[in-house]
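User: For a reading group we're discussing how well predicted structures match intuition. Take Isoprenylcysteine carboxyl methyltransferase. Before you show the prediction, I'll give you the sequence so everyone sees exactly what went in.
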Amino acid sequence: MTWAYIMMALIIIQRLVEVKIARRNERWLKAQGGVEAGTAHYPWMVALHCGFFISLLIEVTVSNIAFSRWSAIPLAIVVIAQIIRIWALSSLGKYWNTKIIVLPEAPVIEKGPYRFLRHPNYMVVVAEIAFVPLLFQAYWTAIVFSLLNAAMLMVRIPTEEAALQGETDYGERFKEKKRFWLV
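Assistant: Thanks. Here is the predicted 3D structure of Isoprenylcysteine carboxyl methyltransferase, as structure tokens, for the group to look at:
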């Protein structure tokens, strides 16, 4: 079970580093005249992600988990997702944030995975919320938080796209690109 806590700690540390980067980027974006959108749903999104890790920790602690050969499948998906996450975040550079902050008239990023998809980072989050719990046979966390995340993204993505369309040429540049691989 120690390996499970180590894995969770590594993922949580990664998120905390991302929050630090997001805060630095937020300061830069706002100093450049960035406009924030989606402030009403943002605290709910933070609560969802914090609740995910709390639920995962509780379910792993009370369950009898073991790393099996079947755990290799979600592990591979999580590793691939992390690679795509790093690719997406590094492609956005200073424009990446956990909040929706749009710099008016800024060029829309169309490099990295954004050449193919509108929201590769959200695709990564979907994969993580579904497959990180499966590493530890935390099925309830996977199911409940996948559904909660789907509901959140139904609010988040249209809000982000509306903000981008209002301040940049996003609508024109991304009209042919899919939101995710299949949609």
